[in-house]
Amino acid sequence: MDQTKTIISRRKFIKSSSGVALFIGVSGMLPQLISCRDPKQIEKQLARHPLTAWVKLSEDDLITIYNPAAEMGQGSMTSLPLLFAEEMDADWSKVKVEFSPQESEVYGSPGWAPGSKLMFTVGSRTTNSYYQVMRKAGAQARYVLMSSAAKHWEVPISEITTYKSFIVHKKTDQKISYGDLVPFLEMPETLPDFTEEQLKNPTEFQLVGKDIPRTEIPAKVDGSALFAIDIRLPGMVYGVLERGNLHGSKPTLTNESEILAMEGVLKIIPLDYAIGIVAKTLEQALNAKKSLKINWSQSKASGHNSQEVYATYEKIASQKQSGKVIIEKGDFPKAIKTAAKTYKVDFKNDYVYHAQMEPLNAVVQVAEDGGSAEVWVGSQQGPDTKLGVPKILDIAPENVSVHLQYLGGGFGRRSMNDFVEECAVLAKEMAPLPVKLIWTREDDITYGAFRPLSLQRLIASTDPNGSVTGFSHSVIGDGGNLVASAVANDHYDIPNQFAEWREASNGIRLKHWRAVGHGPNKFAIECMLDEIASDQGLDPLELRRKLMAKAPRALATLEKVAEISNWNTPSVNGRAKGMAFVEHGSLGTGVCEISVDRSTGNIKVHHFWVALDSGVVVQPDNVKAQMEGGIIMGMSSVLKEQITIVDGKVQQSNFHDYNLLRMQDIPESIETAILESTEIPEGVGETATPMVACAIANAFLKLTGKPLRHLPFSPDRVLQALNT
User: Fold this and answer.
1) φ, ψ of residue 711 in degrees (nearest 5)
2) Rg of the chain over CA atoms, in angstroms?
3) Is the same domain home to 65 and 15?
4) Number of structural domains in the chain
5) Same domain, 18 and 106
6) E strand or H helix at 594
7) What is the residue-wise DSSP string for 621-669?
8) What is the pLDDT of residues 487-540, one digit of tens each?
9) Degrees (nearest 5) of the Cα angle 240, 429, 384?
10) Which class for 680: exposed (0-12), middle (13-18), buried (19 or more C-beta within 10 A)?
11) What Pfam families does this protein's entry cite (predicted)?
């Protein structure tokens, strides 16, 4: 798909657009309203404030709402504008959605930390963190419209109402559409800073909570949606990098003149860890890459063997000194001393790759004078909305324009902007030619950034009644929060808890992978509870019901999933059910039903049920889709996916040896029950994925009496467990 450079500056955008832009105040931003027909007023206002519109109105009733979040299939291109439109009382059929400028000081979310504003689509925080921002901005836009209509009609604003893009004054039987009101719009002297009580009660929502089709789906279906991989610019050249498969190794190129003589090759650009090639076409760049002769140095990763390192981790777990303490509640040592019974179990998980569908890629064009640059990329953004490009090019951030595109999958990988920075390095050398950098699948697997390998040592104590009195969780691995998150048991009433992280670094590139530490750590926690229940002769449901007695919202998901899965009805012969609870923003309890082929070691998941409390649900159908996608991805990682490293080198290279779940392996049914709630919405993208491993393992324990404690549950590991 060809795209010429039609991206224009914000100043030209204002000059050339019809309608008005409402500059709605966010975090102290002064409200402004600019008529796009008055160039002098435009210049005057732009001199004071950059373009920061949340919405643009046109006289043809078109409403353009700006979305500040990345869209990678999770639906933010609909959910956030929907919140704005709800409070604005907009006719959704007349709404168009576009990406906002990548300017965090205006469009950033305040939901990360006090005083911070980030444009960062990760951690299932997008809807939660923008919930009040978008609603308040929508309510303020509505107030501007009502105030303008009241002045135009010379009636009190208190008598004005709105409905589906119309202003109504019932006493005089007057009605005007938002579009027809455009010529009469005036910014009021003051703009209310709406409180929660002044916004709509969730029971009054007309759009939120309804099954409304996602805005970007038609373009994705007919092929008109632009991903970064689709971008073509005049004069564009192509870049690739050879990074090797030993993380951190430094290259020495031995045949530079031979490569430069190859057809289409324009330049060789060395990096500390890679050799870059720029060529006229992608094919020429890849051909040259195949011909590179490189001597690679040793690195920190040299000698690392992923399947042998667990013995070292076990020794680290057995050391007497503590690591970094994460949780210390009650008196765990005392609980152990007074316990009627003590349990000690190790759980393990191998490295996992993101396997996003669209290969990593970016386009960067540096101006001939080196003073400005443009970037086209599918990114989950980050602490720096300019994605590291200003530092690479040594130019001011305001001179870098980032044009965000749809993402063909992220799962945390595209919150790492190494591929954008690499493209900037190549583009700096090739200015003013635009450079497209593409990572091949082999690049991304061999030099990927993986979910960390880790070992969790759990120790639990119970009293004579079988109640859990103490719980200790020691995480051994690299990556800090990547391995040590999600060790809290806030919804379980366990009086004595201790959790720590013991660092073990092997020089492997690591990154957030969907649900981060929840996958391995909730697997360990939930499986430990079922092993205790099994040993004590308790129903896992009853054990959790007792532990959740003081957490009514969590308990409600447990009760609901027990109902929809017919937990108390025995499975047919050869099958069994297992359950798991996860909190990751949303609260969810899942149940799966499995069978096992005892001759091959293959586990088959037949059904999966989830009960979810995610607060206010903006898009119910999309929430269900998120849960289904999360479960499928969880199953793939649990049953199939594995990165192995021998002598520091990644052994897998593409999907022929990095296995993914296939169509024939998906469950016969996935059912999601959404519990009604008026609480602030929580993320749903990472609730389902972590519950899969523990639910499957717990079903396996119930079916066979054998535990599964090492992810993934490959057939050989299943057979080993069955024969132990």
Assistant:
1) -90, 140
2) 28
3) yes
4) 3
5) yes
6) strand 586-597
7) HHHHHHHHHHHHHHHHHHHT--B-EETTEE---STTTS----GGGS-SE
8) 999 999 999 999 999 999 999 999 999 999 999 999 999 999 999 999 999 999
9) 80
10) middle
11) MoCoBD_1, MoCoBD_2
Residue type, position 273, single letter: Y
Structure tokens at 638: 């649990």
What pLDDT digit, counting tens, does each position of 186-228 carry? Answer: 888 888 889 999 999 999 999 999 999 999 999 999 999 999 9
Catalogue the E-assigned strands of 383-445.
Answer: 400-404, 435-438
Kindly report the backbone phi and psi dihedral angles of residue 120, in degrees, each rounded to the nearest multiple of 5, phi listed first. Answer: -145, 105
Query: How distant is the alpha carbon of residue 116 from its chain centre?
Result: 19
What is the tens place of the pLDDT at every residue in 673-721? 999 999 999 999 999 999 999 999 999 999 999 999 999 999 999 999 9
Strands (E), 443-524: 454-462, 468-477, 496-503
Which amino acid type is present at position 160?
A: I
- Write out the two tokens for 80: 């956030």
Quick one: 249 and 129 in the same domain? Answer: no
pLDDT tens digits, residue range 447-501?
999 999 999 999 999 999 999 999 999 999 999 999 999 999 999 999 999 999 9
Q: Say if residue 345 is in the same domain as residue 364.
A: no
Instruction: Name the nearest CA neighbour of 448 among 375, 351, 364, 535.
Output: 351
Closest CA to 238 of 226, 250, 225, 229: 229
Structure tokens at 380: 């989950």
- Residue 322, number of CB atoms within 10 A of its CB: 12
| 432 and 552 assigned to the same domain | no
> Model-level pTM greater than 0.90?
yes
**DSSP characters over 357-385:** SSPPEEEEEE-TTSS-EEEEE---EESST
Quickly list DSSP for 15-38: HH--SEEEE---TTPPPEEEETT-
Q: What angle do CA 671, 674, 679 make, to 5 degrees?
A: 160
Sign of CA dihedral 663, 664, 665, 671: positive
Contact 278, 435 (CB under 8 A): yes
Domain region containing 274: 228-299+360-438
